[in-house]
Design brief:
Helices cover 35% and strands 17% of the residues. It is an alpha+beta fold. It has a single domain, classed as Nucleotidyltransferase, domain 5. The strands form 2 sheets. Strands 1-2-3 form a 3-stranded antiparallel beta sheet. It has a two-stranded parallel ribbon with strand order 4-5. Strand 1 and strand 2 form a beta hairpin. Helix 1 runs parallel beside helix 2. It is globular. The relative contact order is 0.13.
């Protein structure tokens, strides 16, 4: 017997839950919602945009994937938010899509946390809480890193948002 908070998406072949999120141009989360996998992308996208619109009055434009259709775009228009669908450039090879990489990078940062890789929770609100906790931890780590490092002549400084994981003995030291 399955839970009403879990489902199956036959198109994406996903069982369980889907996570929808809105991130700003820096990759910082504005809103997150976790729904059953049987919920369509349009319904999940509308729910997360509603939540993001209530949290930020400055939200003016959204870039979204090709799975979001007319109902999502119409719902964004009702909130005075323009929505632009970013479609794949080539079907059979990988290319970085304009503006979509920001959200994909944010999700990859979050999925480095083991707790978010597998859905252990019974309640999707708890999963949303873990997403916010992991995101807060990432932001705190950025704040506590030294702002200026000594850079050898001829070397280029790395951007603080592009810093990798701390090097160590392979064990999590968090």
């Amino acid at each position: 017997m399955t839970s009403p908070t879990k489902g199956y998406d036959a198109g994406k072949k996903i069982s369980g839950r889907k996570t929808f999120g809105v991130a700003d141009t820096l990759g910082l989360l504005i809103a997150v919602i976790v729904v059953a996998a049987s919920v369509s992308d349009n319904v999940g996208g509308i729910a997360v945009v509603d939540r993001a619109g209530s949290r930020s009055s400055r939200l003016a434009k959204i870039w979204c994937g090709g799975g979001f259709k007319r109902t999502f775009i119409a719902s964004c228009g009702a909130h005075h938010i323009s929505a632009e669908v970013v479609n794949r450039i080539h079907d059979h090879r990988f290319e970085v899509l304009p503006r979509r990489w920001v959200v994909e990078r944010t999700w990859s940062w979050l999925m480095n946390n083991r707790r978010l890789q597998v859905d252990y929770e019974r309640n999707p609100i708890v999963t949303e809480g873990f997403v916010w906790a992991v995101h807060s931890r990432l932001l705190l780590r950025r704040l506590t890193q030294p702002a200026h490092r000594m850079i050898a002549p001829g070397k280029q400084a790395r951007h603080p948002l592009r810093q990798g994981r701390p090097k160590g003995n392979g064990q999590d030291a968090y």
